[in-house]
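Go through the following before class.
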Amino acid sequence: MTWPVLLAGHWTTLPTPLEVRSPFDDRTVAMTSVGTDAEVEVAIAAAVSAAPIMRAWPSHARARTLRAVAQALRADPDTFALPLSDEAGKPLRDARLEVERAAFTFDTAADEVAHIGGEVLPADMMPHGDGRLALTRRVPLGPIAAITPFNFPLLLTAHKLAPALAAGNPVVLKPATKTPLSALGIARLLHDHGVPSGGLSVLPLTRGAADRLVTDDRFRLLTFTGSGAVGWDMKARAGRKRVVLELGGNAGVIIDASADLDLAVQRVVAGGFTYAGQSCISVQRVYVHESVADAFAARLTAAVAALKVGDPRDPANDLGPMITTGDVDRIDEWVRDAVADGARVLTGGHKLSASMYAPTVVDNIPAYTSLCRDEVFAPIVGLYRFAKVAEAIAEVNNSRYGLQAGIFTENLGAALAAFDRLEVGGVLINDVPTWRMDSLPYGGVKDSGTGREGPRWAIEEMTELKMLVINQRLERMS
C-alpha cells in the first residue's frame, strides 16, 4: 500500500519513495515518499499564504475540526493502532492507548480554543494613565515548523498539530522517516474535517530539506521533539524564531524507606519497560533506601523476569522490538561495559534477537558509565542505594538532564523536599516520572529542553500577546 503525503493542502506522491519497515521482522509495512528542498519551498510558501486565512478561521470552526478528529480516532481506533504497531513495533495494547491519548489531546485543544483570550488591565496606576483602558489578546504567531520522533508518532503529532491549529497557525510537520504513517493518518483526518487549504503540510523529508524547517526565517516557531544533541544544534541555528524543545532524559526515581514497595515495583515495571523503555521519561535510575534495597531488588527482578517479549501484534506480549538493530547493539555494549566496571545484572542483560533486548535490571552501576550518565532508551533499569533522602535527591540532580522525576514516600517532608529541590520540569509523588497526563504542562530543564507542551501551554508558545490601550478622553464626552 502506498500512502500519499499532504503537501500544501493537496495529497500527492513524490518522486522519491520511502519504504516503511517493521522493526520486529523487517517486513515492508507500506510505501510513502520523501520530500526534497523543492517540496519544502512549496510547503513554506503555502503556509505563508495561508497565515491570514488561518488567523481568520473562526474559533467555532477550529474547535469543530479538532473535535471531529478526536471522534474519528475513537470511532475506529484499530485503523490507527495497527499501522502504529507495525511501523513503530509498539505492542498493540500500547498502540491503542496512544490512539486514545491522541484523541484526548485533540479534545483538550478544542476546549482551549474558548480560552484563547486576554485581560483587562489597569492603565491608571500613575496619573498619566487616567482615562485609559488597557486590553490584551493572544494572536497567532504565523507559520510553524514541527518535527516529531519515532517513539510516539501519533501522540506527538497530536501535541504539535492540535494546539497550533487551535491557535490559528499554519503548520509544516516532518514526521520521523521510520514512522511516518501515524502522522499521515492524522493529516488525512484534519484535511477531511476542514483545515483551510495550505494550512497544513505533513511529509517526510530528506535530511537536507528538513534543515530548512530550522533555518528558514519565514517560520515563526520551531517545535522539536527528539535527541538533545540535535535539538540544541537546531536552536543554535534557528535564528530569530521561537524554539520549543522536548528532548531526552535519564529519569530518576527515589524509593524511600517508608514507601509502599508493592506499588513502587508495579509502577517501576510499567515506567521502565513499556515500549521497551523507548520514552524520554522512561524510568532509568532507581535510588532505593538501603533498609529496603534488597527487598525491592528481589521483587523488581522477579516482576521484570516475568515480562513477555515478542510480536507486538500479540496482545500477550508486554514488550516488542527496539526501533533498530543498531540500538540493540548499542545497549548490549553499554551493559557489558558497566558489568566490566563492577555492575551486576540481576535479570536480562542480553540480546533475545537482532531486534529485541531482554528486560534488564542492573545493580551497582558506576555513575560515570553510559548506562547511568546517558539516556539508555531501552528496557533497562538501574538500581542504586542511599542512606538519606537528601543524598538521593542530589544523585538524581547529578545529571545533565532534567525532564521528570519521582519519589515513593509516606513522609510529607521528603515529598515536599523532592518537589522543592529536584531539578526537573515535573515531580511525581508516589508514582514514576513516566506518567503523563496530556492536558498538563510537560517539559524539562537543563539538557532536557526548553518550553512546555500540553495544549494550553503550547498555545501560549504559539501565540503572541498583543496590547491595546484606549484613551477614553472622558473630559471631552461631557
